[in-house]
Here is the input.
Amino acid sequence: MNRINIIVKGWVKVLPFYLFTFLLLFSSCVNEDEFPNTRQGNFEALWKIIDEHYCFFDYKQQEYGLDWNAVYQKYKVRVNEQMTSEQLFEVLGDMLSELRDGHVNLSASYDYARYWSWQEDFPKNYSDSLERRYLGTDYKIAGGLRYRILDDNIGYIRYASFQSGFGDGNLDDVLSYLALCRGLIIDIRNNGGGTLTYAERLASRFTNEKVLVGYMRHKTGTGHNDFSDMEPQYLEPPSRLRWHKPVCVLTNRSVFSSANEFTMYMKALPDVKLVGDRTGGGAGMPFSSSLPNGWNVRFSACPMYDAQRQSTEFGIEPHHYVSLTDEDFQRGKDTIIEFARKLLVQ
Here is the structure.
C-alpha cells in the first residue's frame, strides 16, 4: 500500500509568510486514504489527487464545460488489470488532458504526458534565424539576458527563459548601457517560464511606485471551492537603477507560466505595451504528488489573477496583435520587432 504524498514543486520564488504557512498546512492535511498499486488503484489515486487539490475546476467548467465527475466515469471503464503499464499511462495522460492545463503533467521513467495544445495549435510568431539577424554576433550578455542597441537607437533585450538567472548588478549594467536609447524592447517570445523571482526582479525596474499587479489564492480544503480570499500581489521599485522610457514586451503563444506572470506584471504598468500574440497562460502555481506505482503528477494548485481579478490561465491579450508575415521573413525582417520599433518612436 502507498499513501498519496503531496510535495511542493514548480515555480521558485521567495514565498510570503502566509503562503509559506499554507504550504506547511497543505503538506500536513493531505487525505490519508490509501490505494493499492494496481491499475485501478493508480487510476483512483490520480483522480482523487486532482479532485481534491486542482485549482481551476470552476473556471474551466465555465469556460468549456469541464465536469470532473463525468471525466471519472469516462475513463474508469478504460482501466483494467490486464492492461500494460504503457496502456495505463496513456489512459491517465488522456484523462489529465481534459483539464487543458500546461502545468498538468504525468511522468514515468519512459514517458512524459503533457498538454501542449496551448501553443501547438497556434502560429509560432517567432524565428530563431531572425533573432540572430537582430542580435548579430556582438551582442552583450548579462546572466540570462542578451542585449544590444539597434540601429535606430532602440534598446533590445532578448530573454529566452526565466530559468536563466541574473542579479541586480546585471540589471544595473544592462539599463545603464541602454540609458540613452529612445525606447526598449523586451523580447520574451518562446519563454516557457522558470523562476518567478526573476520575473518580479525584472519587472520591478519599470516602475517608480508600488503597483498592484495581481492576486493569489490558495486551497484551504479538499472541496473544489475551498479557497482563501484573494491576496493582493504588489510590485515594488527597488532602490536601484530604473527605466523611465517607453517599453514594448514581445509575446507569443509559447510564453507560459512565470513568463506569463511577467507579462501580467508589465501590462499593469503605464509606459508598457504588449506586442505580438496572446500568451499561452499557465496561471496556476504547480505542485506535485506521486501515485502508488511511483509515477509523478504535477498540477496547478494555487490560482493567480491579474489586477482586475481575472484569471490569466488561458493567456494574456497584447495591446497590439501582430503576426510574423511570410513577406517580412523572406526579407529578413521580424514583423513584430519592426512594429514595436515604430511604436516606440512615435
